[in-house]
Write a structure and sequence with these properties.
Layout lengths: L8 H12 L5 H16 L16 H11 L1 H20 L6 E7 L7 E7 L2 H5 L1 H66 L5 H36 L24 H7 L1 H26 L3 E9 L2 E9 L9 H66 L5 H36 L25
Antiparallel strand pairs: 1-2, 3-4
Helix pairs in contact: 2-4, 2-6, 3-6, 4-6, 6-7, 6-9, 6-11, 9-10, 10-11
Length: 453
C-alpha cells in the first residue's frame, strides 16, 4: 500500500513564506540593546583608556566597562538568544516524510510515501508566534535592564574607588600628624617636662593612626580591584581623581508616574503576563489537539491510483489535559500577581530612594556649612594660641586630627550623595530600584515547551 499524508498546503505555504522572512542577527540585537541604553542614560561603549597624566572620569569608566567587561558581553548575547527563541517558536512544526519501498510481485517495486504534520503545529502557529513575541520583548527588556544596572554598578564602583583614595590621603595626614605628635611627646618627656601618661597617650594615638592607615590602604586597594573587575581592565591609583567633587546642583526628586512608565522591570513583567495569558489560552486547545494529524492518502497499486483522507488522533482516555490547562492558568495568574507586587515594590523603592537622597544631601550641606567651617575655626584658633604659647603641642595635634576626621566624614557624606544620585538616575532611566527582587518575575515562565512548542 502506498500512502501520502497531505496537509493544508496553502496554509503551510503561507506560513513558510512568513517564517522565512524571520532571521537572527546577533549584532543587530546587541546594537538595539546598546541604542536603548544610550537613549536612557547617554552611555556609550568606548575602549579608550586615559592617557598619561589624565584621570579616569565616571563617564569614562562606564564607557570602558561597556567595551571590556566580558560578563556583560556574554549577557548581551541573551538578546540574540531571545530572538532565536522567538524565530523558532514562530515557525510551524516541520512536516515528517516517511519513505518505504518493498519488492513487488513482478510488477516493479512498491513505494509507500507518507507526508504528515501536526494539525496543531500548523494551525496554532499565529498564537505561538504572539506568545513568542511577548517572551522576546520580556527578554529584551531584561537584557537592557541588566546592562543599565551594570552601568549603575560601575558608577558606584568608581565612586567607591575615588572615595577610598581620598580617605587614604586623609588617613595618611592623620598618621603623619600622630607620628609628629609622638616625636614631640618623646622629646618633652626626655626633657622631663611631661608625665609618662602623656607620652603613652600619644603613643596609643600614633599606633591607632597607623592601624587606621593600613586599613584605609587595604580598602583603597580593594576598591580599585572592584572597579577593575567592572572595567575588565586593571586601574592604578594614579588613574583615579584625587577627590570626589560635590554636586553642582541639588538632587532632583523622581516623578513617580514617569518612573513607572520607564521601568524596565515593569515592562518585562507586563510582557510576562501577556505571554503567560497567551500560552494559557493556547494550552486549552493544545492539551486536546496536540496529537491530531490530518492529511490526504494516495495509494498506488498495480499502476492504479486511489485517494482519500486520513485523521489520526490520540484518545484522551488516561489524560484529558486538565492538569496542563490548570498549570497554564496558574502561571498566568502568578504572572499577574508578580506584576502587581513588583509595581508596589517599585513605588516603595522610589520613596526609599528619595528619602536616602534627601538625607545624603542634608548631610553634605551640614558638613559643608557647619562642621568644616567649625573645624577650620578650631584649627586657626588653636594655632594662634599655640603660637602665643597658650596651648601645648598636644592640643595642636588634636585639632589637626579633628579637622582630618571632619574631612573623612565629609568624604563619606559625598560618597553617599553620589550613590544616591546614581540610584535616582538608575530609577529614572528604568533600572532596578534597590530592594526589588526583579528576578522573581521570570519564575512565572513555563519550564518546558508545551502547547505545540
Amino acid at each position: 500500500m502506498n500512502r501520502t499524508r497531505l496537509n493544508a498546503l496553502p496554509i503551510l505555504a503561507s506560513l513558510l513564506v512568513v517564517s522565512a522572512c524571520m532571521t537572527v542577527d546577533p549584532a543587530a540585537e546587541r546594537a538595539n540593546v546598546m541604542a536603548s541604553l544610550a537613549e536612557r542614560t547617554g552611555s556609550v561603549a568606548d575602549p579608550v583608556l586615559p592617557r598619561e597624566g589624565e584621570t579616569l572620569s565616571e563617564a569614562g569608566a562606564v564607557s570602558l566597562a561597556l567595551t571590556n567587561n566580558h560578563r556583560l558581553l556574554a549577557r548581551l548575547n541573551e538578546a540574540g538568544l531571545a530572538r532565536a527563541d522567538q524565530v523558532m517558536a514562530s515557525r510551524p512544526v516541520n512536516p515528517v516524510v516517511e519513505v518505504v519501498t518493498l519488492p513487488g510481485d513482478g510488477h516493479g517495486r512498491v513505494w509507500d510515501i507518507d507526508l504528515g504534520a501536526s494539525l496543531l503545529g500548523i494551525a496554532a502557529t499565529p498564537w505561538r508566534a504572539a506568545a513568542a513575541q511577548d517572551r522576546y520583548e520580556e527578554q529584551q527588556a531584561e537584557t537592557v535592564l541588566a546592562t543599565l544596572d551594570f552601568v549603575a554598578e560601575t558608577r558606584r564602583a568608581w565612586v567607591a574607588a575615588v572615595a577610598a583614595r581620598q580617605r587614604l590621603d586623609l588617613q595618611q595626614r592623620i598618621r603623619d600628624a600622630a607620628a609628629a605628635s609622638l616625636v614631640v611627646a618623646e622629646e618633652i618627656r626626655a626633657a622631663g617636662n611631661a608625665p609618662l601618661v602623656e607620652l603613652e597617650r600619644e603613643r596609643i594615638f600614633a599606633q591607632q593612626a597607623e592601624l587606621d592607615y593600613l586599613e584605609a590602604e587595604h580598602a583603597a586597594l580593594q576598591a580599585r580591584l572592584d572597579l577593575g573587575r567592572q572595567l575588565g581592565s586593571p586601574v592604578s591609583a594614579d588613574q583615579l581623581p584625587v577627590r570626589l567633587e560635590p554636586g553642582e546642583a541639588p538632587l532632583h526628586g523622581l516623578d513617580v508616574q514617569a518612573a513607572l512608565s520607564a521601568s524596565l522591570p515593569l515592562a518585562s513583567a507586563r510582557s510576562s503576563v501577556e505571554a503567560a495569558a497567551g500560552e494559557a489560552g493556547l494550552e486549552n486547545w493544545a492539551s486536546l489537539l496536540e496529537h491530531v494529524e490530518l492529511g490526504g492518502v494516495f495509494e498506488r497499486e498495480d499502476g492504479d491510483w486511489s485517494r482519500g483522507w486520513m485523521l489520526e488522533f490520540a484518545l484522551p482516555v488516561f489524560d484529558a489535559g486538565s492538569a496542563r490547562r490548570a498549570a497554564a492558568q496558574l502561571r498566568a495568574e502568578q504572572a499577574i500577581h508578580q506584576h502587581a507586587a513588583l509595581a508596589y515594590e517599585i513605588l516603595n523603592a522610589v520613596e526609599s530612594a528619595q528619602a536616602v537622597a534627601g538625607l545624603a544631601e542634608r548631610r553634605v550641606m551640614h558638613i559643608q556649612d557647619e562642621a568644616l567651617p567649625t573645624s577650620e575655626r578650631l584649627m586657626d584658633a588653636t594655632m594662634r594660641q599655640y603660637n602665643a604659647m597658650q596651648v601645648s603641642v598636644f592640643d595642636l595635634m588634636a585639632a589637626v586630627q579633628m579637622r582630618s576626621r571632619t574631612g573623612q566624614a565629609y568624604v563619606e557624606a559625598l560618597a553617599d550623595w553620589h550613590r544616591a544620585r546614581i540610584a535616582l538616575d538608575q530609577i529614572r532611566a528604568g533600572g532596578s530600584p534597590a530592594m526589588v527582587a526583579v528576578g522573581d518575575v521570570r519564575d512565572t515562565a513555563p519550564t518546558r515547551g508545551e502547547g505545540g512548542h
